[in-house]
Specification:
The chain has 238 residues and is of the alpha/beta class. It is built from six helices and 13 strands. The radius of gyration is 21 Å and the shape is elongated.
Amino acid sequence: MKTGKMDGLEYTLKRSNRKSMGISIERDGTIMMTAPHHAELIDIEKFVSEKRIWIYQKLAQKKALNREGPKREFVNGQGFLYLGKSYRLKLIDGSGIKSGRSSKTAPLRLWHGYFELAETENAKARNHFISWYRKQIKKQLKERIPRYDKRIGVKVKDVRILDLGHRWASCGKNGSINFNWRSVMAPVWVFDYILVHEMVHMIERGHTDRFWSLVARVMPDYEEYALWLNENGADLDL
C-alpha cells in the first residue's frame, strides 16, 4: 500500500483486482482509497478530488462521534447560538415572557441581544430551545426558499423539522425536505448551503458531477460553506 495526497487530503492507496475505484473512511479517520491495478495515478487523484466533499463530511462525522459535545448549561450568561452568533441567556422571574409586540407569553424569546428564559421553566429549558429553533427554521425557510427555487428549478412543497443526528438535512419524497433543528445555529450562509444542497437533490439524488455543478451554479463558494460545516458542525448542539 502507498500513500498519496490530493487537495490537502492524505490517503492510503490499495491496489486490487476490483474493476472500479472506491473510498472508505476507517474508524481512526484514515482515508482508504482502493483502485484497480491498471488505474492511472491521475485518474485516482481526480476521483479523490471529486469525492472531497463526501470525504470531509465523513471525517467530520467521525470527529463528532469522538469528541465531547458542547457543555452548555441553562444558567445566566451561558451562550447559545442562532445563525452563527452567540447570545447570552438571562433567567427572568415568572412563568412566561411577552413574545415580541404580542400580548401572548412564551417561556423563551430572543430579545435585545439576549435569550430570555422564564426561570420557572428552567427544568424544561432544552425542550424550549429546540421548540424555538424549530419555529425559527420555518420562518427562515419561508423567506429563503423563494431566493433559490426558480434558480434551481424546483418547488419545495413541504418542510419537516426533525432530529437527524449528524445529518443536517435530507431530501424527502414528493417535493419535501427534512431539516435538522440544529441547522439554524449555523451562520446564515451555511444554512443557505444546507438548503441549496437538498433542493438540488430534488433534481439529482446522488453526489454526482452534475449535482455539484448545479450547486456551484447557484452557490459558487459552496465548498467554503461545506468545509465550515464539517469543521464546526459538532459545536451546533445543546
